[in-house]
Amino acid sequence: MKVIFPQTEIVSPFKVGDKVRVHIATLYKKPPYEVIEGTVYQVRVAFPLLWATKENVEYELAELTFRYGVLPDTTNFPKMKEVENQLYDLPEACLEECG
Q: Which of 5, 32, 42, 68 places its Cα 20 to 30 Å from the Cα of 94?
C-alpha cells in the first residue's frame, strides 16, 4: 500500500489556545445555550481508515479532517460546568473564530 500526500503541509484552521465560538445547539438534546465561547485545548487529525486487499494500491490524501477539544468559558456560560466534558471531539463545522 502507498499513501501519497501531495501537499507538503496541511494546517488546521484552529490551534491550541485559540478563542473560539462553538455552536452547540446540535450537540445536545436540550442545549443550555445555542452558542458558547471557549478555548481550544486539543487538536486531533481524524485520519481515514485505509486498507488494501490487492497489490499496488495507492491512496492520495489531499485533505485531512481536524477535530477539536474546547474548554468552555464557564464564567460567562456557567451552565456549561455540567456538560463541559462533552466538548472533547468537535468537528470544525461547529467552531468559528472569536473576535
A: 5
